[in-house]
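worker-03 picked up job from queue 'complexes'. Input manifest follows; two sequence lines, order preserved.
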Amino acid sequence: MTKETQNFTNKNLTGSQIVIEALRREDTEVVFGYPGGAIMNVYDEIYKQDHFQHILTKHEQAAVHAADAYARSSGKVGVAIVTSGPGFTNAVTGLATAYTDSIPMVVISGQVPTAVIGTDAFQEIDAVGISRSCTKHNFLVNDVKDLTRVMKIAFHIARSGRPGPVHIDLPKDVTADLAQFNYEQEFDLPTYKPTIKGNVRQIKAALEHISDAKRPLLYVGGGAVLSNCYQEIRDFAHQTKIPVVETLMARGIMRSDDELLFGMLGMHGEYAANMAMSQTDMIICLGARFDDRVTGRLDVFAKKAHVVHVDIDPASIAKIVKPNYPIVGDLAVVMKQILEHVKDFEFNDYSSWVDTLKGYQKEHPLTYHEDSDRLKPQWVIQRTGELLGDDALISTDVGQHQMWAAQFYPFNYPRQWMTSGGLGTMGVGLPYAMGVKRANPDKISVNFTGDGSIMMNIQEIITCTQYNLPHINIILNNNYLGMVRQWQTRFYEDRLSETILETQANFQMLCESMGGVGYKVHTKEEFDQALKDAVASNKTAIIEVIVERREEVLPMVPNGHALDEMLLLKKEGDK
Amino acid sequence: MNNFKDFYNSEEKREVLSVVVVNKESVLSRIVDLFSARGYNIDSLTVAPIPESEYSRITIITIGRARVIDQIVKQLNKLVPVLKVTEHKDVIEKDTVLIKIPIDQNLSDVDVIARAYNGQIQNVTADAIVVSATDEPVRIENFIKVIKKYNPIEIVRSGVVAMER
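worker-03 finished. Artifact:
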C-alpha cells in the first residue's frame, strides 16, 4: 500500500504517527527543525514519510524564524519541530518574534518522559512555563489520548482570531504510546470564540462621522496583511478619497505609487505621514495598535482627532488610545461590511486636505543627499527596487537598513515585506529569506541586512545551499551597529560604546565557503553588476556594499517627543 | 486625542472580578503570570471548582485606574481557557480569617469580640485557642486590628469570595 492511500482513521497510532498524520491533514508541506533525544520518535516517523519536506537548519532559532517567514509570505501556518531543553530554549526568540507580530505558527518541542518530568532530568526544562508569555497558547501533552485534540486545536488557535504561535510540548513516552486517531472529530472549544463580524450599528455610526470629518486619515497596520484585505482597503480609500498612512507592518497594502498614500508613519516615518497623523480630525485605524514607535509622545498624540478602531483583538482597543467607535471583528469581514454601507453616506470633499498633505510631501520629501564618495545606503535600496521591483520579496534584519528598506523600497502588494516589527529581532533576515524562498520559489528573495545583524544567523547559508533555497543578502556595511551608533551620536555625545565593528569577516569568502557566491562592491556600476550576477547565479549570495558610515535614518522623532517634532534631513547646501 | 478624562485620569479603584476558567492544571499560573507580566495588582485571589461542571471560579480583587481595569478584563478574556470575566458592581463579599491566640489571654473577651464579627472559638488546646470569623473583608480587617491586642500567634486569611446580589 502506498502512503497516499493509507487511511489511519480510527486505527491505533503512536503519538509520533499522530503528529505526522495531523500535519498531513493540515496540508503542511514543509517543516523546519532540528532533532534531538526527546523528539527522536517523531523524527523516526519523519524519516518514514514523504508528505512534507523537512528542512534541517543549523540552529533551532533559524528553524523557527524560517517557519515564521514561510507563514508571513504565504499566509499558511508555519511549522517547526525541536527537541527538549536547549533545543526549545533556542526556539524561544523565534516564538517571541512571531508572537509580537501575530504570525500563525505551530512549534512542537520534545520533552523528557512524563515519569521523570520535575526531576531535573537531562535536557529537561519547563518549556510551557517559558513559552507561556510568548505564545498565543501552549500545551503540555500528558496523555497520548489527548494528542489528536491538541494538534487540531493548536492549528485552529494559531490561524484564527488574532493569529499567533502555538507551542506543543511533547514528552518522549507520549510519542511512543498508542491511541486511536480520528482527525475528522470535532473538538469543542467553548472558551475560545473570536468575534469575526463587526457591529453593523457601530459601523454605520462610524461611517456617518467619517463622512462628516474634514481631515480623515486611514491608519493601516499589520492586521490588514494578516486578514488579506488590501483590495477592500484600496477600494475604500479610492471611493472616499481619504488619504492613507501605513505602519511598518503594513507596507504593500497600498501601491507605493498610489496618490493617496503618504507613506509610513512613526519614529522614522515620512514628514507628510506624521504631519497627517498630527493634524487629522478622524483617525480610521484598521488593524494597527498605536504602538509607541507610531504615536511618539502620547499625551499630545493626534490631539484633535476622533478615533475609529477596527481590530480583531478587543485587548488592542483602548489599550493606548480610547476610540469613539470601537469595532471588534476580522478586518476583512468588517471592510466588506463597510463597503456595503459606504454608498449610503455622502462623504465630504477631502481634496484640500489631500493637497495640504501633498504640500508637506513636497516640502520635506523622503530623500537623501549624494554627498559622499561612498554609496548611500538609501540608493542601494532604491536601486534594488528599480531593478527587481515586484519580482522580489523583501526580508530585513533590524536596524538602520530595516528603516531605509521600509522607506525606500517600492512595495506594491502585501506579503512582499517581511520584517520583525514588534520584537525587533536582529538575525531574522537570513532565515526569513530562506523561509520566503521556500514558500515562493518563483520569486527573488532578498534580505537587506547590516554588518551587525547578518552575523547572528550567518550559518544558515549552508542550509540554503543544501536545500537549494537561493536568495540574496545585501549587506549595507558601515562598520557600525548603525542604529545604536546614530543614537549614541545624537543623545550620548558621540560616545560610541561597543558599536564599532572594525574586525570583520571576509563576507565573500564566508559565503563561498558555504556554497554561495559573494560580491564586494564600492560603486553603483559594481552594485548593478553584482545584483544581476547574483540573480543569474541562482545561488545564495552576499553582496557586501561599502556605504557611507555616518548616514542617518531621517526623519526621526526622538524618544519622548511628539510626532510632529521631527529631526529632518537638512536641505542640500545648508550644512 | 479625544477627551476621555474619566478613562485616562481616573482615580484608582478597587474591583472585584470573577473569572470562570476551564478546570485544568496551568490555568491558574496563566492568570497569575498575566498579572505579573503586565504589572497589575492582585489584592486577593481565591479559586475553587464550580460544582458539577468542568470549570473553576477565580475571584480576584485588584486595584487600578479605569483603563487598567479595562485592560485586565480584556487580557483575561483573551486567555484561551477563560470562559467568562465578570466585573462585579453590586456584590456580597465574604472573607474568612483564622486566628491563633495564646491560652493565657482573656478568652471571654476574645469570644465576645469574635461573636461581634460573626465568629466563634473553633478549637482549644493546652497552649492556644483558634477563633474564626467570616464577614465582609473590611470588617475582617477591623476584627484583626482589634484582636491584635491579644497577641495572636498566627493569622490566616482565606481571601475573598463574592457573589452578585
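worker-03 released lock.
Residues 160 and 194 of chain A are 8 Å apart (CA to CA).
The domain at 377-546 of chain A is CATH 3.40.50.970 (Rossmann fold).
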